[in-house]
Every structure is written in C-alpha cells, then in structure tokens.
Amino acid sequence: MPQEYLLPASIEECLHMLAVYPGGRIIAGGTDLMLDLREGRKEAKALIDITRIGELKRISADKDRISIGAAVTHAEVAASELIRQRLPALAAAAGAVGSPQVRNVGTLGGNIVNAQPAADTAVALVALGARAVIVSAAGERQVAVEDLYAGVGRSQVDASKEILTKFIIDLWGAGDASAFARLARRRTLSLPVLNVAVRVKLKEGRCTRARVCLAPVVPRPLPCQEAASVLIGQPPTEEVIARAAAAAKQAAHPRDSLLRGPANYRKDMVEVLLKRALREAFGLPAEEDGHQGQTV
Amino acid sequence: MVKFELKVNGQEYQLEIPADVSLLEVLREYLGFTGTKEGCGQGECGACTVLVDGQAVNACLYPALKAAGAEVLTIEGLAGPGGKLHPLQEAFISAGAVQCGYCTPGMIMSAKALLDRNPTPTREEIKLGLAGNLCRCTGYNKIITAVEKAAAAINKEK
User: Fold this and answer.
1) In this predicted complex, what is the ipTM?
2) Residue A116 has pLDDT above 70, yes or no
3) How many domains does one find in chain B?
4) Which of A117, A213, A243, A293 is 20 to 30 A from A252 via CA?
5) CB within 8 A of B129, min separation 6: which ones?
C-alpha cells in the first residue's frame, strides 16, 4: 500500500524521487491505475504524480514536427486547434476515450503505458508514426509507440524506473491527412468493438505515404503494412480504397470475444471501418454502407 | 498516512489520509459530504461526479491527494446563500428529472461543468456533456430538458 503521494515539479525531481523511494511508481491521471491498485493488479509503495510537471503538459510545433507532453489530457488533445487541424485522427481518438470525466483526467501517456490493445489514442498514435520519449537515470531513449507493447496491459515503459515524457510526431508536409474510425455499442463509456486509424500523404493526385493501424485484432495496436502498401503510388479512388480495406481484412485476425463480438463479424467490420477512415482522410464523401450511427 | 489540506465548497479542511485513498472516500467518509454518490466505483457511471477546478471528474478514480491546492465543488456547494437552490437544482425538480435520485448529484455536477463552459448548449451538446452519467430510471429526456430549462434561467438572470 502506498505510503506517499508525491507531486514533483520537474523531470529531474521526478527521477530523483524514483531513485530514493524504492517501490515508487509513476501515476498520471490515475483513471486506470487507481482501479489496478485497489484490485491488487499493481502495487506501489509511493505514488509519484507527474501531472504538475509543466514540461509534460505542453503541446508544441515547429515546421517539421509536433510534440505532445505525456501528461496532456485527452480532453486537451481533443480540444487543441493544432491537433484538430494537423493530426485529426488523434483529436478524434482522444475525443472517443471513456467519458467527459475520464477525458478530463486521463492522459495521453497513461493511455499508452496502460498498454491496452485497443486504447483509442494508441491506435491513432501508431497510425501517425509517433515516437515516445522515455527518460530514466540512464538517459533518454525514443521508441516507436507500436514497439512499446510487451503484452496485454504490459508496457515496455517501466513506471517504477522511467518516465514517458512526450510524443513526437513528424509532419508530412502538404497533403498530410489522417482519420480515425471506431465501432462500439454506444458512443461513450464503451469498449471499442474495433478501432482503426489511417494517415496518408497525397501528392499530385497520388498517395505517396500511408500508415494504417487496426485494433484490437492482436494483443497490441497492429500496424497494417499490407493495407498501406496497396495505397502507396495509387490515386485516392473508391477502387483503391476497396483493395486496401480488403487487404486489412485479410491481415486482421480478431478473436471471438464476449465483450466485443464474434471474430467473423469483426473481421468483416475491419474492412468497413477502414473504408470509412480512408474516405475521410482522402476527403471523399462518406458512402452509405449500412448504419453509421456508431462510429465517431 | 499523509497530512494534507483539501478545499471543498470554499472551505479548507485539514486531513490525515492514506496515500492512495480516492477523493470520493475522503468526501463521503472523512468529511461527510454524502451528496456525492458511489455507483459503480469504476468510473463507468458518473454518480460520483464532482468538479475539480471547474472540471468534471469521477471522484471514485481521482486520488484525493491529486486535489491538493485545487478547488473541489460538490453538490452541497451548489446552493446559494440561505440555501437558495441553484437553477439546475430548481430545473431538475420542476422538469421531473429526478426519480430515484441516485444519479442526480452527478448529473447536476456534469451539467454545471457544461453550462459554465457553454451557457447555450444544444440538446445534442447536452447529451454529450452528460454522456459519462448513467441513469437507470428517468430515461434521460427529462434530464436533458431540465438542463435546457436551467440554461435559460441562468441566461435570463444575467
């Protein structure tokens, strides 16, 4: 049971606390960790709250990249004009997390370190090619978000030794577009049956770069190279979108899930959702392919 | 046990609490603010919604010590001088938006956060603002109507 609750004001102070409090553990919003502690899934002797570290609360941009502090909340990401304009997939994903109350407190970094396979912002960050900056006493390292997963609910980030400080997302210049699509039983407070995110770059009428992420079809957000390679070099047409979506369906192997639905249904829906996301990213009109009420 | 000061409804309280205790437990068990309800205890129902520095949060998931230095507002802090009910409270009564009443404090606190930010919400915006609050008996329509009535009343007062 934690004996201390500490509120460091800087990354240096936070690292010092991790060093001097054995059994110390980082807490951000706490919307997942509080339950894990209460139910005995995780333990900590001291909780070190990173949400008062100014540097971790910042969103900034230069001409090449956008940097988002790990303690920025989902509500802040969803409301940021910069993110809405430049990284719309991430704004939409952050706006789909939990509920208003959870989005006001839960953080982008927490959503990644909690390592659930279909965390909405993780799916968007993987599609955007985000890198996480992780700081420890040994120094700083940068890791692609998709490489941070060690298993369901297990992150490569060791919250007892290191701090995920920010995410860096390179800008792709003119023609950079992204979108996020989610299927769930209701719009709020519901696990995604599926969620997908795409990022594309259009140049002279062709797609020159593409990244696709699908979840939850394996125990981590799945980058889908099969679908991305269909898009590259092609014009953004319905025919190309259909081929990419079919490739994604082929690559996805969702499980039967009592919570999320049968595998064959979810495999079919990967195709539908990816079409929706690609149409949005390419600026094409949404097509009537059945009811659309549940996606955001 | 950790000593700290918590500000609730404008008043400071000196407390000595376990490091991982939730804001909900402190409000109800240490300070007696039992207007804030525990529903699911997992952040799924919104019955425990309170405002921390004006933002709606689930008190059941919120570490009490995270609220150090912040202003916490509970349903008990909503009424004005002399116990005059807040327009949201009046509207929930007059619109018949209360049945068993268990979700009502959380609903009203989420609605307060919404109206503070957006004084003239559409019905759709009200639904989104209250999306983190479950009600198992009224069917939501009267709750949404109550928030519309309260918004109109507040804007008329101004």
Assistant:
1) 0.97
2) yes
3) 2
4) A293
5) A100, B110, B111, B113, B114, B118, B121, B147
Nearest to A108 by CA among A61, A146, A75, A142: A75
Do residues B66 and B109 share a domain? no
CATH number at residue B26: 3.10.20.30
Q: Which residue of A has its CA nearest to B46?
A: A101
- Mark yes or no for CB contact A105/B19 under 8 Å: no
Q: Is the pLDDT of residue A192 over 60?
A: yes
Summarised one tens digit per residue, pLDDT across range A88-110 is 999 999 999 999 999 999 999 99
Considering the domain A4-170 in this protein, what is its CATH number? 3.30.465.10
CA distance A100 to chain B (A): 6
Q: What is the pLDDT of residue A288?
A: 58
- Structural domain harbouring B25: 2-77
Is A183:A194 a contact under the CB 8 Å cutoff?
A: yes
- Selecting from A2, A38, A100 the residue whose C-beta is nearest the C-beta of B132 gives A100
Confidence of residue A294 (pLDDT cuts 50, 70, 90): very low
CB pairs under 8 A between A and B: 91
Confidence of residue A295 (pLDDT cuts 50, 70, 90): very low
Task: Kindly determine whether residue B68 and residue A3, on different chains, have CB atoms separated by under 8 Å.
Answer: no
DSSP letters spanning B18-84: -TT-BHHHIIIIIS--TTSPPSSSSSSS-TTEEEETTEEEETTTSBGGGGTTSEEE-GGG-S-GGGP
Q: Which one of B61, B68, B110 has the shortest CB-CB distance to A34?
A: B61
Across the interface, whether the CB atoms of B131 and A2 are under 8 A apart is answered no
> Would strands B2-8 and B71-73 be described as parallel, antiparallel, or unpaired?
parallel
Q: How far is B82 from chain A (nearest CA, A)?
A: 30
pLDDT over threshold 80, residue A164 = yes
Interface test with A, best of B61, B107, B118 (most A CBs within 10 A): B61
Q: Which residue in chain A has the smallest CA separation from B51?
A: A101
Angle A267-A273-A277 from CA coordinates, rounded to 5°: 145
Judge whether residue B117 has pLDDT over 80. yes
Q: How large is the average pLDDT for residues B101-110?
A: 98
Report B:54-73 residues touching A (Cβ under 8 A): 55-58, 60-63, 65-66, 68
Q: For residue B60, is pLDDT > 60?
A: yes
pLDDT of residue A289: 54
